[in-house]
Amino acid sequence: MVEEHGRSGRPRSERARAAVLHAVDDLLVEVGYAALTMKGIAERAGVGRQTVYRWWSNKAEILYEASAIDARQELSVPLSGDPARDLTAYLDALVGFLAHSHAGAAYRALIGEAQHDTAVAALLASRDDILGESAARVVEPALGASGSELTVEQATALLVGPPFFHILSGRGAETLDTRQLAKEFTRVLAVR
Fold first, then answer.
1. What does the alpha-carbon distance between residue 88 and residue 94 come to, in Å, rounded to a whole number?
2. How far is 3 from 155, CA to CA, in rounded Å?
3. Could you please report the per-residue DSSP string of the chain?
């Protein structure tokens, strides 16, 4: 069994950690963010509450960690060298993540909660930008090829923004045309 050190320096079981991260995803889908509790997470994972609190302060931290791990896998698209193809592949992965994935549901729940819970907002602001990091891999080559003066962060916001807004505002993912979004993105980059 792999052992890691948690916040308090005590070793933690990788098996228990994985069980907690799987439990939080499952419970979020079953009961929603508001009904999600540390006690429920611990019970579903088959670990004690003290074990969960040793490593995480609250349910938002657990949910963020679970979401970030899965997002890094789900949003990692192989690069083909063709910026239009890579942008479309990334947008397909992003739409799938936001609209259909348990990790995407966790991410959406955290974004929603951050709108009225300052602690969750601070948590998200203090951690890696999951979408920004993944999008930068496909944005940087397109940005370089375009000669645009936008920063990677600005260009990433232009790419991620439309599908993010579309899905988070309750519209169906099936109406998104990722190929057209990629084409519009490259057209905007080309305008100087």
1. 10
2. 40
3. --EEE-TTS-EEEHHHHHHHHHHHHHHHHHH-TTT--HHHHHHHHTS-HHHHHHH-SSHHHHHHHHHHHHHHHHT-----S-HHHHHHHHHHHHHHHHHH-HHHHHHHHHHHHHTT-HHHHHHHHHS--HHHHHHHHHHHHHHHHHT----HHHHHHHHHHHHHHHHHTT--GGG--HHHHHHHHHHHHH--
Contacts of 185 (CB under 8 A, 6+ apart): 87, 142, 158, 159
State mean pLDDT over 158-178: 93
In Å, the largest CA–CA distance within the chain is 58
Please count the CA atoms within 13 angstroms of the CA of 190 that sit on its side-chain side: 8
User: pLDDT digits over 70-115, tens only?
Assistant: 999 999 999 998 988 999 999 999 999 999 999 999 999 999 999 9
Up-side HSE of residue 85: CA atoms within 13 Å toward CB?
5
Structural domains of the chain sorted by starting position, each given as residue range(s) with its CATH number in brackets: 3-56 (1.10.10.60), 65-190 (1.10.357.10)
Q: What is the pTM of this model?
A: 0.85
* Residue pair 62/26 in contact by the 8 Å Cβ criterion: no
